[in-house]
Amino acid sequence: MEVNLENNTSELPSESSAGVPKDRRREALGNLCVLPDEILCEILISLTPLDIARLSCVSSVMYILCNEEPLWMSLCLNNVNRHIEYKGSWKKTALHQLDLPNQYHEACKRPLHFDGFNSLFLYRRLYRCYTSLNGFSFDRGTVERKENIYLEEFQREYDGRKPVLISGLADNWPARKSWTTEQLLAKYGEEKFRLSQRSSQKITMKFKDYLSYMQIQHDEDPLYIFDEKFGNSAPDLLNDYSVPHLFQEDYFDILDSEKRPPFRWLIIGPERSGASWHVDPALTSAWNTLISGRKRWALYPPGRVPSGVTVHVNEEDGDVNIDGPSSLQWWLDFYPLLPDAEKPIECTQLPGETIFVPSGWWHCVLNLETTIAVTQNFVNSKNFEFVCLDMSPGYRHKGVCRAGVLALDEGSFEDLNKNVLCLDNKLSSSDPTRKEKRLKMCQPLEDSKNENDTNSLSKYHGLGSLEFSYDLNFLAMFLDKERDHYNSLWASGNCIGQREMREWLWKLWLGRPWLRDLIWKGACIALNAGKWFERVGEICAFHGLPSPLHDEKLPVGMGSNPVYLVADYAIKIFVEDGLEASLYGLGTELEFYSLLHKVNSPLKNYIPGILASGILLFENGLYTVFPWDGKCIPEVIANCNFISMKHKKIDYPFGVWNKKQFECQNAGMLPCKSGNSGECSLIWPYIVTKRCSGEIYAELRDTLSWEDTLNLASFLGEKLRNLHLLPCPSSDASLLTVGEQIELPHDNRFMEIAADKIHITAEWNLFISTLNRKRKDLSDRLTKWGDPIPCKLIEKVAEYIPHDLAEFLDIFEEVCKSCTWVHSDVMDDNIYMTQCSSGGSTYHLPAEDGYVNCYSSNSGQKHSWHPSHILDFSNLSIGDPILDLIPIHLDIFRGDSRLLKQFLKSYGLALGRKKSLNDSVEDNRFHRLSYRAMCYCILHDDNILGAIFSLWKELKMANSWEEVEETVWGDLNDYTAGF
């Protein structure tokens, strides 16, 4: 049946012939009539526009529900495939997004009217769409107002304590005169700005289109510009304002711009728009300066969940989500019902005024008219520890920070009152399958007029005299003391990633030594730094190394394992992914080092030498060190229940081949035999190496000359060549035979290939099997990663990735008779650089390296740098050498094709084979090196695609994966030594 999406009246029930209104709902909805209208509307949002069009033909009530503007607004925003062009209604805008044929874009016919149907839910929503807020500026004025406040007074009275509304801070800003809708339109009309987040992807609209939308819309929760990237699209705007003197201390400014979390926003919105109830990310503080218009603010102190709001805390990773009404709905439906004692602190912000929102405070904002504002979040000495607390692993403390005592189970309070800090058993749910806690604000008791609000809630819940305190000592009682950033799940809602968090603390430690006492407190909260410092001290004592100095207390860099630089030594404690993975990491690294010296590979001169290795055990309050060279199974490990017979038959029981099986097992390809190793969680493998001199490339990147960078590319090419030529250990004793225990695909060519090429698959089956497992649920994984990966490409990824990656075996045949070592993690923080010798001498490198000669002078000229060492071989694996090009090209070269070509010139090894006449693979894409590299990027455990679409921003508009492949990896296809 052909359906007119704009208007269709077919099969609609007729009106009552007697003229008496009839109850249409039961007749029109059938069995669905038992569902309230709000549930029906939520169900409709999950359908496609075509399904909605068909459903609208079912009955008159369905016609009404399926033509409601809020429904089409959600459908449009959830299916955005380009920037939005508002077409006068959300239905028309959604159809425009779908690129429907012109015949469907006809003028709307006269609206249809049906009697016998009413809906309070729809009426309230319609009322909110057309309500006027002209007289809504009255408030109780309970936020203090100040003028010309001094920094000392602000820090003493307000910072970290309570909100304040300040005038005079923006009097001299050019923005006060130039930030009008007319002037912004004239200058930035064609620029795209990001809108308030109403879907899983970033929504953009040209400024001229947004102004048009803003003037004609009648949405109950209008979109507003909320753009953290406005400095990129309109950099001149950054010159129109300055950070007020009260808020200039910001610890996040030590991070590079691309690693810094979003911190400043341009905000432009119409009447009725605004921000619903929330606590600012990472418990940062914020200032918000209003340029034009009026905003109404409501605020509650930390731990006071507003009425109508529900806090969701994920018990696995601590992610926090908040459900609640829109700002307008809360002011209309909830605020009037609150008794005076439960009303929020509130104010109406006027043009030129700046409001300060302290860390942890709940706030809700409603635009009373068209407003333009700028806001920034910051971290300073007053909230630094709270920010570290919020990003520390676990969920209990996050619930308490936002919901106060309502987040706690009743059985916990007796222990809390006795100052028992370990709350593991008391605060955990009795239901082990429960993954999420919902913390809801309850209505106050009628007899609580003369009592403190918190006490009232406590008594209502049987919580005794316990009071919530937004204090580090109180909140830290709810931390999971044994968890740390190195091996805990990371909350996706955290403002920065795990690596960035560690890098941030390390950069603060180096760059602001006067803050080290404060930084150490934060690191102990976020990283369990005190425990790791204690452990590295035990290792130093056992091996007779110098004790770590005060300046050496913090783990260095941003790696996945704590690393300490103590005197001339580097000490790495393996913790990533738990004990078993750590043993494989150290065991493989020790096996690799042994092989380097056995074959006298030149690569050994560019890797830090091993001085000691072993296992640290914490038992009965004491630490014990067990030296271990990677051979045999240490006694301390033998009792762990993940040890199998296969470990006991080879020289390196935790070497690379068993590690490959372990990786395959974790990918879901083999049955897990390791059991629960939680009982061994107080065991840590470690390694001590010689400390490299010089500087990490990541710290030098922006200061190096082009010649130095070319030298680095050539250096990496030769060292990776040496790595990939290194013989792999025999797989006979540990590698599974084909099909014996590995789950293999059956409806494809894998078994045929395995039968014909048993000598190849015996070395590649784990690699291919793991890739095939990673292919499952690929779209869901990419969707979870979200922006900046384009949604339209996620939809096409299943077509791009081969159904069975065993097809790669044909390509490997002529080149990869055996697997190669793969470093997997050659990134900018794993390369050491040293300066060329002084005295005006020229530093010559062998001609075959392709290096550019560097010159150093003692006449004050800039010294040249050359690479000296590659670090961190704990992620060693065996597989396709192209895998090593991914971190090198994306992280070190930042996508520069000139550096990739220089690398390949020095590398010189074949990476594939040309197609022959007898080739059994019909799909030509398998013969593109670029295709293999792109497939590996998509299937990677880490969000490599996020890095790609951040480096090549133009690829966000790509229509196919082939476009992305050609842009990122096309140079590989011109690599003459590649075949």
TrEMBL record:
<feature type="domain" description="F-box">
    <location>
        <begin position="29"/>
        <end position="75"/>
    </location>
</feature>
<feature type="region of interest" description="Disordered">
    <location>
        <begin position="1"/>
        <end position="22"/>
    </location>
</feature>
<dbReference type="GO" id="GO:0005737">
    <property type="term" value="C:cytoplasm"/>
</dbReference>
<feature type="domain" description="JmjC">
    <location>
        <begin position="232"/>
        <end position="395"/>
    </location>
</feature>
<dbReference type="GO" id="GO:0016491">
    <property type="term" value="F:oxidoreductase activity"/>
</dbReference>
<dbReference type="InterPro" id="IPR036047">
    <property type="entry name" value="F-box-like_dom_sf"/>
</dbReference>
<keyword id="KW-0408">Iron</keyword>
<dbReference type="Pfam" id="PF12937">
    <property type="entry name" value="F-box-like"/>
</dbReference>
<dbReference type="GO" id="GO:0046872">
    <property type="term" value="F:metal ion binding"/>
</dbReference>
<dbReference type="InterPro" id="IPR001810">
    <property type="entry name" value="F-box_dom"/>
</dbReference>
<dbReference type="InterPro" id="IPR003347">
    <property type="entry name" value="JmjC_dom"/>
</dbReference>
<keyword id="KW-0539">Nucleus</keyword>
<dbReference type="Pfam" id="PF13621">
    <property type="entry name" value="Cupin_8"/>
</dbReference>
<feature type="compositionally biased region" description="Polar residues">
    <location>
        <begin position="1"/>
        <end position="17"/>
    </location>
</feature>
<keyword id="KW-0479">Metal-binding</keyword>
<dbReference type="InterPro" id="IPR041667">
    <property type="entry name" value="Cupin_8"/>
</dbReference>
<comment type="similarity">
    <text>Belongs to the JARID1 histone demethylase family.</text>
</comment>
<dbReference type="InterPro" id="IPR050910">
    <property type="entry name" value="JMJD6_ArgDemeth/LysHydrox"/>
</dbReference>
<dbReference type="GO" id="GO:0005634">
    <property type="term" value="C:nucleus"/>
</dbReference>
<keyword id="KW-0560">Oxidoreductase</keyword>
<protein>
    <recommendedName>
        <fullName>F-box protein</fullName>
    </recommendedName>
</protein>
<dbReference type="InterPro" id="IPR011009">
    <property type="entry name" value="Kinase-like_dom_sf"/>
</dbReference>
